[in-house]
Specification:
By secondary structure, the chain is mainly alpha-helical. Helices cover 65% and strands 0% of the residues. α4 packs across α7, α5 packs across α9 and α7 packs antiparallel against α8. The termini are far apart.
Length: 305
């Protein structure tokens, strides 16, 4: 008989979980690729975002972009950062949570899945051209400028050579890079034990925000929207888990109490009464209290009226 869930915690076995997540990812990728809006609408949204940010004094992408372009070593490192960590760190943390923190895995998994679906809806409803594609805006496509240093092509950021047609160029709003980075940083900072690992986790979302803006792939508002999408995904994940838990309790599949205490721990935590020394017991039996002492013990000291 093929086992579908682990006996220890009820999570799906690893191969089923891997098939589910990989299938979801490729479904998302295919849908994202075909959810390509018109270029005119996407460019219009991009210019609108720049105007809104100018009114809010948030136009920092241009300065970051030109500063990074002047430091080729850092620019190439940022290109590799953008093209790799997004696809390595996130699945690695999912595996780590599944193996080392199974009690927190389901909520984390549902959070990132819900955030990804919400982002996909945003790509469909609001196609947005990134800053690097706005003609005359003064941005430099950093990854295209240094495409000879990596596997990405010169016409599209992060897409391998020859696969540019599979990428959705107008999926800037919200920034899924920033949503996944904040999710990764939160999970590691919350559940890792080593201090230096938690420190890296705290730095990771901010570094990702810098990279996506300095390479002219996202606006400030894209970054903020990505973080907000993750928050909304966390709320939806809580609802999904609560509904599934209630359904399981109703069907008798799970214990209605989340935090179950093992009987052995309960027994061990009971405070046993301290045994009285034998000498004291013997002395008490040889010299019983006088009647007045018994009266005081039962009724308390006699008070003067």
């Amino acid at each position: 008989m093929i086992r579908l869930r682990r006996r220890s915690d009820g999570l799906p076995v690893l191969w089923i979980e891997a098939v589910m997540i990989i299938g979801f990812y490729y479904t998302y990728t295919a849908t994202r690729a075909v959810a390509d809006g018109s270029e005119r609408d996407a460019l219009a949204v991009g210019w609108d975002l720049l105007r809104i940010q100018a009114d809010l004094h948030l136009n920092v992408e241009g300065g970051l972009n030109h500063w990074l372009q002047g430091i080729p070593v850092l620019a190439v490192a940022s290109c590799y950062y953008y093209a790799t960590l997004h696809f390595i760190v996130t699945p690695a943390i999912l595996v780590w949570l599944y193996r080392k923190r199974p009690g927190h895995y389901l909520r984390a998994r549902w959070t990132i899945l819900c955030a990804t679906v919400i982002s996909l809806v945003g790509f469909i409803l609001l196609p947005t051209a990134p800053p690097r594609l706005l003609p005359g805006a003064g941005f430099v496509d950093t990854m295209a400028s240094f495409h000879d240093w990596g596997w990405w092509g010169g016409g599209t950021s992060a897409a391998p050579r020859g696969l540019a047609g599979l990428a959705n160029q107008f999926a800037a709003m919200p920034s899924l890079h920033c949503a996944w980075a904040l999710w990764s940083g939160w999970c590691v900072a919350r559940f890792a034990r080593r201090r230096w690992v938690r420190t890296l986790a705290v730095i990771y979302p901010g570094t990702t925000a810098f990279v996506v803006m300095a390479t002219a792939n996202h606006y400030v508002l894209d970054v903020v929207a990505g973080w907000m999408v993750l928050g909304l995904g966390a709320l939806l994940a809580a609802v999904v888990i609560r509904v599934a838990h209630r359904r399981g309790c109703r069907d008798g599949l799970v214990d209605p109490v989340d935090q179950r205490v093992e009987p052995q721990r309960v027994e061990s935590e009971r405070v046993e009464p301290q045994a009285r020394p034998a000498a004291i017991v013997g002395a008490a039996a040889a010299h019983p209290p006088a009647s007045t002492d018994v009266h005081r013990i039962r009724h308390g000291p006699t008070r003067c009226m």
